Request: fold
Amino acid sequence: MSKLRILVLVHEALVPPDDIKKTSEEIEFEPWVTEYHVISTLKKMKHEVHVLGVYSDLRSIRSAVDEINPHVIYNLLEEFDGEALFDQNVVSYLELLRVPYTGCNPRGLILARDKALAKKILTYHRIPTPKFFVFPKNKKVNRPKHLEFPLIVKCLTEEASFGISKASVVHNDEKLQERVEYINKKLNDDALVEQFVEGRELYVGIVGNYRAKALPVWELFFEKVDKPEKEFYSNRAKFNKKYRTKKGIKTGPAELDPALEKKIFSVCRRAYKVLNLSGYARIDIRLTVDEKIYILEANPNPDISATDELAMSALHAKIKYKDLLKKILSLGIQWSGSTK
Reply:
């Protein structure tokens, strides 16, 4: 790949500091670790890299595009003006500017960010996903008969396990009401309630536009618990070092029968296609003891840090981090050309 002028869009609070004196292990738990990994790697690849911190002003993006005239924008924004759902609007704006960008297109973001809408589409296409129901804010909590305990209560639109804790899994109507009210009132979001599926938690990275390539299946392990099939990726499980050590939490390649792995790849690529995703995404699934596959959610533009699941899965397939970023850049440029 020839040298490119790249404008990297990041949240203004996640612009990595210029002078970093921490070890790679210490950086791992910094909020700007992904931005640091991407920016530093692009610079090592000899690209001309410009970083723009964004919060709520689209004019800054337009000014930077006019001034820098980038070949491509590396989009690391996951929200705009504090709203997770607004990231799709930023990408729509980039399309209006006719500037190539990495990651998912706005249509795919709209479909996947609303977990209930995504699950309706998956169900229509007969792609298995847990039974669910949405409890909007300011509505009475009445559990539909088709939802049987245990259930897990999530935010409808938030990402990165936001709002998910041990209390999210409920076993009776009283606890269900308490957790739905917590999501509605404390976190100010509609509540997505779905059947809690016991089993292995797996992640499948998908890279591509019209031809999607599945990366090796990655698994979440709880090595120091008696019943790992009842565990799930809560906020503490992701970000609390002491909690992760206590429960022996780690991720790594999943050991699967080749036929089952092939089936998982097929299901995840179908989900990627019907949700109109592009660029790269991570499909989260649960695999039951009798090998039933349930898609929990599709995550367009997932964490792309060098040590997160997608990049580690790519490395397991002998795709180095810089080559993964190179592929994502190429896909962004190709997508722009296909939509003009």
Summary: The longest strand covers residues 200-207. The chain has a mean pLDDT of 93. The longest helix spans residues 321-339.
